[in-house]
Model the fold of this input.
Amino acid sequence: MDLGSLAIYIVLGFIAQLIDGALGMAYGLISTSALLAAGAPPAIASASVHAAEMVTTGLAAGSHVWNKNVDWSVFKRLLPAGIVGGVIGAYLLTDLPETPVKIFVVVYLAAMALLILWRLFRQRQRRRRAGRLIPIGVAGGFLDALGGGGWGPMVTSTLIAQGDEPRSSIGSVSASEFFVTLAISITFITQLDLANYGHIVLGLIIGGAIAAPFAGFLARVLPQKLLTGIVAVVVIALAIYNFTQLGLNFGS
Done:
């Protein structure tokens, strides 16, 4: 095993999980983007990240439960919907054209960022409609499997844009993410051979495991308004990154 490359994946896993645990998003997108840039096939990149997330999301979920960040009514609705969407996305990953899906994600992220900023400046909360959680969960799980990341940006940003409290949204999404990731990973394992990518998974697990215990604490102690603003900035950054990638792909 190349210790140098293992160290790189440990650092990548640490940074990605620290951001994801505190904000409820970005672990998959950061890790998958790095693996794709390193030349890993999309299905292998997504499968490797989800295999690592079986450990890191479990630790992050425990941290959020310990810090009382989880709204269990939200958790119970998101969980089954996310699992269904995730399993479908994992099965279809190798068959669906990437460009239409990426365009949809980019447009959606941009819209969510604007909505989050709008609600931040309005400083007004409104109650969510429970029925909306199911389609949000299905879409989040589907995009997460398809792109190696998407559960947090899709679900967390949507809940906060609807006016939910950032702390409980982040905690609930992170807690349910473990089970969604488990379902996606099992689906990938039945279809792909990850034997040659074990060092990637191991590095992501070690780095993520070190960072995960801090996740719930950061979400609990950071001011809610600051968390909302940070989420908006992260979502905007992801949208800009995706716009850039799409432009490069069309230009090539």
Observations:
- Residues 77 and 215 are 22 Å apart (CA to CA).
